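Minutes, project check-in
Item: structure for the 145-residue chain
Input as provided by the requester:
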Amino acid sequence: MVASLGVSTALCVSPLLSAAGFLIIAAHPRPHIVAGVEVVRKVVQYSLARPTREMLFTVLSREEKYSAKITLDTVVQRVGDAAAAALFEVVGVQYAMGPVAMAVSGLGLCGVWLGVTLQLGVQYKRRRAGLIRQQVAESAAHQII
């Protein structure tokens, strides 16, 4: 699926789908709707987003790859979890604004997430083009020798 969509587009599917889910939840804040949105989000996460994320590492050096993976798997994951918990605590518990306010807050975060994925797509394309140029140059150099 990534091959037909392209890495940049595939990266954008999760934040766009999550934003659509938050809009649905804001319009119909019922437990079964939240559960359905979460099921769809998880399916897309494991079938598309995770494999696409792994493709981003193919254009990195070994050192960059391991450093980035460690940072993502520890720091970014933990900060994201803590931020989500804090948002829930403030909006949902302290201000008792309810599921609609939570969904709208999540929608704003999806905008930030989409911006990050767009930038990642641009960086991936640049690095991939650079790797292709390097491989072509090395191949041409070996043919001359």
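Outcome recorded: The chain has a mean pLDDT of 90.
No further action items on this chain.
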